[in-house]
Specification:
The protein is mostly helical and 293 residues long. It has one domain. The protein is 76% helix and 0% strand. The protein is globular.
Length: 293
């Protein structure tokens, strides 16, 4: 793997964090505003728009549709469907910062799962770097306090994190046989049946809410494709540290678009998280992952 490809993968994860942050902020806005979408409805919009965008891409470049490992593609879609509906359920019940803090435990969980599923062996220093990046996230999203209540919202966010960790390892396992556009298309295709039963309430109307919902879905589309591409070049452990930038982007976008405040502790958290990511990047350049069977 060339240094240039790895550098591009890190940039892709930065873009992934920005787009995922925008998706979460818009999801919070659409699920709590005067005209509300249910978590199931937001999930259907996300998958529907994503599938349509994928088909448009395949129409322009048919060679991009190359499914190989159908079993893992479908598994990724089912797991991803559960992630999406659970995360939107969390955003509808608890503040975006708290939901993001819990959900973004998934990179660390994914790193643990990669030990057995993919045979990756992160060095101790990489574990420490992930921990530092995660601590920074906690400072940003918890405003200096990591104490959380336990309710349906917190439970949904934690469950979403577990399924997201499974999805991350499935993506990593498939990147040797399937490309990012194909993986994303099956993510939407297999995810739709999972979320449709949660979208049976009356649907809202209005041009502005629907425009924002489509923008939310397109942001998710861009984030998923960038993340999937990046997993083809980086280990799960290194990617985990870069994905900690997602809630940082979420907090900054929430301050800009929703008027949420950022404290001095939050600014310190941003600095700590960026330091953790930088350290993990240096370690990732030297790490040698055991290839999956």
């Amino acid at each position: 793997m060339t240094a240039r490809r790895r550098a591009l993968a890190r940039l892709q994860l930065v873009g992934c964090g920005l787009f995922f942050g925008l998706m979460a902020v818009l999801g919070r806005l659409l699920s709590t505003g005067p005209i509300r979408f249910t978590p199931g409805q937001l999930s259907v919009v996300r998958f529907g728009v994503g599938a349509a965008a994928s088909l448009a891409v395949f129409a322009v470049r048919p060679s991009l549709y190359r499914p190989h490992n159908v079993r893992l593609l479908v598994t990724r879609g089912i797991s991803g469907g559960l992630v999406v509906v659970l995360y939107f359920a969390a955003l509808a019940r608890i503040p975006a910062g708290e939901a993001g803090m819990i959900y973004n435990l998934f990179p660390a969980i994914a790193t643990v799962l990669a030990l057995g599923l993919l045979g990756e062996r992160p060095r101790l220093q990489l574990w420490l770097a992930i921990g530092i990046a995660t601590l920074g996230v906690g400072l940003v999203l918890g405003n200096g306090s990591l104490h959380l209540g336990v309710g349906w919202g917190e439970g949904a966010a934690l469950a979403a994190a577990v399924f997201a960790a499974v999805s991350a390892n499935v993506i990593r396992a498939m990147r040797g046989t399937d490309n990012a556009p194909t993986i994303f298309f099956f993510f939407c295709l297999a995810g739709l049946p999972v979320v449709v039963p949660f979208a049976l309430d009356p649907w809202p109307g209005g041009l502005l809410p629907w425009t924002l919902a489509v923008v939310m879905a397109l942001s998710a589309f861009a984030a998923q494709v960038l993340m999937t591409e990046a997993y083809g070049a980086l280990s799960v452990g290194e990617a985990a540290s870069w994905l900690q930038l997602t809630p940082i982007a979420q907090v900054l976008l929430a301050a800009l678009l929703l008027g949420e405040s950022i404290t001095a502790v939050g600014l310190l958290g941003i600095a700590v998280s960026v330091a953790g990511v930088a350290w993990a990047t240096r370690l990732g350049q030297r790490a040698v992952a055991v290839p999956p069977p």
